[in-house]
Amino acid sequence: MPSVDHVAGSERGQLEPGIPRLDEATHSVKGIVSTPRGPWAVCSHDLAGEASIAWSTPCERRDDLERLPAVDPERSADSAVRRARITLRRYATSLQIDRLGTATFRCRRCNLPTGCICDEGPDRPKWDEREYVLACIEAFRRRMRAVFGEAVALAVVIEHHADDTLHVHFGFGHFLDKRKVAACWEHGFVDLRRIESKDGRHMGKRERARRCAAYLTKYVTKEHHRPGVKSYSTTRGLVPAPRRERFMTRNEAVLWLCRENGGLWESEWHSESMETWDAPPVWLLFWGDS
Ligand SMILES: [Zn+2]
Question: How far is the CA of 162 from the centre of ligand 1 (A)?
Answer without folding.
Answer: 19
